[in-house]
Amino acid sequence: MPTQDTPPLKDGDLLAAVDLGSNSFHMVVARYVLGQLRIIDRIKETVRLAEGLDGRGGLDPSVMPRALDCLARFGQRIRTLPPSRVRALATNTVRQLGNPQAFLVPAETALGHGIEVVAGREEARLIYLGVAHGSPPDPGKRRLVMDIGGGSTETIIGEGFQALERESLQMGCIATTRRYFGDGRLSRKRWKEARIELAAEYQPFAERYRRLGWHEAMGSSGTIKAICDVSVKMKLTKVSVTDASLEAIRDKLLDFENISDIKLPGLSAERRPIFAGGLLVLDAAFGALGIERMYVSDHAMREGVLYDLIGRGSPEDPRAESIRAMQARYGVDLDQAARVEATALSLFDQAELAWGLDGDSRRQLAWAARIHEIGLAIAHSQYHQHGAYLVEHADIAGFSRTEQQILAALLRTQRRVINPSSFDKLPDRLVASVQRIALLLRLSVLIHRSHDRDPLPVVELDVDGDELLLRLPKRWLDGHPLTLLDLETERETLAGFGRRLTIRAL
């Protein structure tokens, strides 16, 4: 059964993408016109969030004000846009926080919109999507795309608009500068040793990338653009970075003894403190992957997020395709999944208004129903726990970490006792709605526990706050005594969770 979508995009609608990078925060606002995006506003602010990481999962409080002030300015620009037309993503630095909600809660308040944490490989997919739309690749030709951020580096091989290989490494211009040049001193010996260490990070996938191959390489975001600018100003290249120009820039850089002394043509004062780390990452990548020339794209993850927003409102939603792939990978009983989904969505439609649920909740419930049995591929015992683990920790194209944690919570609480800690990783703003759709999934799974292929009669549900009234035909209940017993047990389980379930015969 199809899920209920948010209102389709219309000509003139505005969309916004916010990228909370480890070095800079970006916002792009675009107008949807004739199926295309027309960029009408770009805002970038250097925040250097990664500078606040303390190596123990904490964030220096001194970086919070500049991050929140920036988001407040972004929020003023997109205050009138509906939530379905705005997507804000946090990347590597927030991924490393031991308690990301300590940052996300005030950040969401400042922005006025929800913020999702995106995993490294999903970040890579969005980067490729942005670059591919900015410079459409030639048909049938593969492209290598690389993005060096403040805390991580994403490397992708794609064809057309599809990312074929995605990797994310814990190295970026800020993190690498701090790691190898934290005292500000530069030396050729230190550079050589660091380059060997970084090149080793590419080894697990370098051979695979080389074997797959690509026709051209493109870099996105500020670090690679800054290196290209220096290459052009030094008259080494015209519109790209080559292995020879990279070597020349490196040799020139290492003529300086300290980062504060660096003076290179085309290098801005803002970029200077983190340039060495970014150059080192690119130098190691060129060597490990055998890159000879790299062009620069003006597009990056934020543009990819905009195009992904369009896809999310269409039948080609990448998340739906990922769910289908999981069903195939784990051998899901598709008929049973469809039965559970149909009942879950029927219950949702009856509870939607009273509980204030939205289209996002409906989609999450539908996807959870489609893959609720994937844990059976591991073992029947505790299969709900196995399924939750798979969903939470897998790389699922199209899903942010936040969305995967929602699915994991739904799968983990589909049966047996509901542990309130199952919802601890979710933002506070989402807990109530996720708990409610979890109840709907539980009832649907329970009603279809027998895997009976016979059509289910009308199931009626009334909800009022924490009270649920479920009505089923008496004849059907009489013919399914085990289900009736399960419903009675469920009533006791929900009572322990602070919910009241009443069962009546029609």
From TrEMBL:
The keyword Hydrolase applies. Pfam families: Ppx-GppA (PF02541), Ppx-GppA_III (PF21447). The keyword NADP does not apply. It catalyses: [phosphate](n) + H2O = [phosphate](n-1) + phosphate + H(+). Its cofactor is Mg(2+). This is Exopolyphosphatase. Its EC number is 3.6.1.11. GO terms for molecular function: exopolyphosphatase activity. It is found in: Cell membrane. PANTHER family: EXOPOLYPHOSPHATASE. GO terms for biological process: polyphosphate catabolic process. Keywords: Cell membrane, Hydrolase, Membrane. GO terms for cellular component: plasma membrane.
